[in-house]
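Kindly draft a sequence, keeping tokens residue-aligned:
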Amino acid sequence: MFEKLLIANRGEIALRIHRACRELGIRTVAVHSTADANAMHVRLADESVCIGPPAPRDSYLNIAAILTAAAITGADAIHPGVGFLAENADFAAMVEEHGIVFIGPSADHIRLMGDKVAARRAAEKLGIPVVPGTPALEDVAAVEAARALGYPVLIKAAAGGGGRGMRVARDEAALKALVPEAAAEAKAFFGNGALYLERYLERPRHIEVQILGDGAGGMIHLGERDCSIQRKHQKLLEESPSPALTPAEREAIGRTATEAMQRLGYKSAGTLEFLYRDGAFHFIEMNTRLQVEHPVTEMVSGIDIVREQIRIAAGATLGYRQAGVVLSGHAIECRINAEHPQTFLPSPGTVVGYHAPGGLGVRVDSALYQGYVVPPHYDSLVAKLVVHAASRADGLMRMARALEEFVIAGIDTTIALHQRLIVEPDFVAGRYDIGWLERLLAAS
């Protein structure tokens, strides 16, 4: 097992990784920007190194600074967390070249799945159904390709994720206007303006399958998550299992995912994302990293995904087969963002009061504390409230109780929005899709 692990991230996910390391007896190194000098993970880590000013490009995306921090502290492994460098194949390769273990899949697999067009081709070869689409395109070619696919089409960034560079075009005029806009956004966020098109599926659900592979033949899935509650392609609430799937569909998509990833020889945690409609699954992308919503799966499976990532990277095998994975009950996660619950304007500032809910089946992943200053430089996620119960109905009741207890004073948060969502009749009945929340908000 590793002696010292550097956490190349911030916020609640950095704290989550620190906790897993502490339980494994691994010392931790926190890297941080000047804006995060008083962050919780920095306070709790065995060592900390400031790697730059607040701007991510000068700190959390500064590969040279992170590798230098690892070298001077003697870290023998680096966990990239979520976002930032977590899916940067060059970073993964450089970590290994420096004799440090990267907690994640191989650089080749990150590179393959990071190129969304290449990932689609790989998925097809591995027997995974995909949404009809195109290779990477230039502006002019997009018009002809869209005509062949049929409108509406979804414009997507080839190197993207998180909804960046994504637009829906319902006719040719819209396509011509949106392609340059999407390319510019993709270039700004990913350094690559290449785009591709997919046929746009009306009102599908967003279903993802969590897998774990040890690179030595062991490959399992931990069920699915329904991530369809989204605004502008950003997830706000997730649950497992999906209220839309039958047991047969759940078993089939899990088997498809694990068999494909075993053929690929994938090692570490990963997530295959699908659009689901009318009983059919369509692969859209794979995330070769830990997901923000991984606690949902941990609650129904009882398996610590971060711990497994670290163990696998240290050379351990899974130690159990699919038959040994028992999924029980229902879990729901609400992402609490530092945003106004109606306008969604960011709300950085000082937390003047903080009280996290508790009780049976309640989990809060957050790095907040009273007096903490939420900086304006990063993602607005400040807490993940997760509940687990025997049934979905019980889970909704438990979530309502937990949200009522949650106090974050001094900044605006989306707690009030979640309180509204979980009692909406369509949500309670499980009747929702990826556009449901935006339709609800537009009508209010």
